[in-house]
Amino acid sequence: MKVPLSWLNEFVEVSDLSVKDLADRLTFSGVEVEGVEEVGAALDERFVVGEILTCEAHPNSDHLHICKVSDGAQEFQIVCGAPNAAAGLKVPFAKIGAVIPAGGFEIKKAKLRGVESFGMLCSERELKLSDDHVGLMVLDVSLATGTLMRDVLPPPEVVLDLEITWNRPDCLSIIGIAREFAALLGRPLKMPSLAFEESGEAVGSLAKVVVEDAVKCPRYTARVMTDVRDGVSPEWMRRRLELCGVRPISLIVDVTNYVMLECGQPLHAFDATKLAGRTVVVRCARDGEKMKTLDGVERTLDASMLVIADAESPNAVAGVMGGAESEIAAGTGCVLLESALFDPASTKWTAAKLGLSSESSRRFERGVDVDLADTASRRAVALLQGHGGAKVARGVIDIDNRDYVPQEIALRFERVREVLGIDLPEERMVAILESLGLEVEVWDGGDAEEPAGRNARTTLVFRVPSWRLDLTLEADFIEEIARMHGLDAIPDRMPRSTAISTLDDKPFYARAKIRDALIGMGFSEAMHYSFLSAQELDAFDTCDASRRVVLPNPVSADYGVLRDSLLPQLVGSLGRNASRQVESAGLFEMGRVFLMEEGGAPREEERVSIGLMGPFGRSAVDRRRAVSNEEAMLWLKGAVENLAAAAGAGGLDFAPCATRLAGTLALQDVLEVSLGGVAVGRMGLVSAGLRHQWRVASPMAVAELRLAPLLAGAGARGAVKPSPQFPATRRDVAFVADAGVAHRDVVEAIKKAGPAELTGVELFDIFQSKEIGKGKRSLAYALTFRSPERTLTDAEVNAAFARIVQALKDGLRVEVREG
What we know:
By secondary structure, this protein is an alpha+beta fold. The protein contains 20 helices and 40 strands.
């Protein structure tokens, strides 16, 4: 938000303070000053009103002009490149020696394309009046040639650019910022004049208002004015609007914008003659109803959106934007002025759904002062009567269905001292809160009369003003006292006692181990928002769409649903890396997903997702060969097993899923990951269709696991086993089997046939070729035998090995490769 200091100075005296002091005080009080802009500059006598006498094309250029310019005393030859340069114009003329405000360079005699130039004709940007640099700044032809520009232009203006947080909608106005400075500086706050005269007919005979939805529109006020002389606004008003980034249009429209910026209450002016039946109906739109808004776009409405209609059709989207059919146009003389209170949630939902944001919706979404509607209406009417000669109908239509009761909150003085760590007197605390508009209600449960003696005061009840919607707790009062007293004035103090948590920290350290293990394997941690669009989730799983948690008032449609899986965003991040020529990447994320229970209650669950693409598991010298699907899945399987080992979860089982992970073709070759017979997650390959949008040709493998089962054994200590005292013996077996024979089946058959001394089974080679045959593959396993009591003989190992080989032949129908 932009705040011109001259406008601010009308409500609180700040002219005696430097701009830096004002910016520092406001920033340290919690309202951040993002920037300070100086509009205009102090021009010396070298800047005058110049008159272009002649303008001819430059003989050596296709865009330059040679102008004869008069300053009222003599003529100068100027070479100018502005496209709007023409004879008869009066423009700002900078003579030789002048220093241009924008850029700080001095004007000197120059030769441009062989023609001498003795000065410069200026645009608004060069005089720091605006960013307009499309042409020369054209002045009023009635100005005397040679008049000093400092006598023509307004004085330089300083504008503060503020960042207003969502919890402080009261600061979205000049008066709101003036309240802050009045409290900070201990100075009185002056309010604008609301005086105007009513005459003629009663407003009820000129207009009718019907509010059908009192929840979405708790209050609606309307005043009617006739004989309004619409036209150009006063120079000072147009100047202030421009300083705040608002384009002046006409008196009626400018006044509504001016009052919104000044008071914080959005207004809307209707051409009363264009309202069918001279009636205003505040209702919800009908499904499919259409309306063209002021931006010229035809909008399709639905029943969730509040509109301002006449007896026939909608004329405005309530709190967001007016309609083109009833807009103020040239010749408008009869005006119905709306000043209303709209529900913040409804306004935000409508603006987001239509993709339409405005200064009005920005204020209603955050919350407008519930008592401001009539005050702002009176202010606008006073301005229109004073500058447009408006005749104001008697009375006001005020449909008031508010159930607002000023909030009363108790403040314990001792609690303030405990939290802030400083011994503030009660008088100082009360003075701070009263300077912010709070009113004293009750001392210590009695009446508002102040008791005598410091020790008699322990608690005070305050009434919160209507514009401070953010003050709801005692803690909010303490924060206000702290920021007004000065956060930099609060000393640093060490805690009085050592806090020892009773919470179990084993899961925390287990998560850290998982994170360290994944980083150690070369994965990078990713972090995503907890909300995304429904379309992103639908690409992975439409089966559980009914269990998703949908946000009632999303910031935008792209962030309308809480995620029920970590995979869509992880795959998106991998894809974006691939689209930026990242050959190989591995990412993981530890975060929460959200689901709706059958009873309608939301539930959240911690999960970990892992994804990789490209030759992630290969060495640096072996990255050109194409990656197979099997390779990618084996790399990911190893990463998942290492993750479980780091968490101390035990061995995992992997089995093909009976159904796909997704309701669409998002994943293929899906494996279910189980721990102790309970499914804890799934892993698979991202489908080619989904990879195509990122132009990823190599396999992309992803997995998602529930964290709770993996962390269940966190911190548990395993049994201590003695170090082996006797040597181990290894035997290798290689065989050709059908491609459908799973590793798990092989290990199960080996362990079933093997003796108790079989301590290890490791797959170390997989080989396929045309010689082996289609649908066949060679598997090689290393078997380790060791006894804790003695050294095994070759005869014992060979006998056990022979039984295992025979079991493989009989059970799995494999062909053992001898020799």
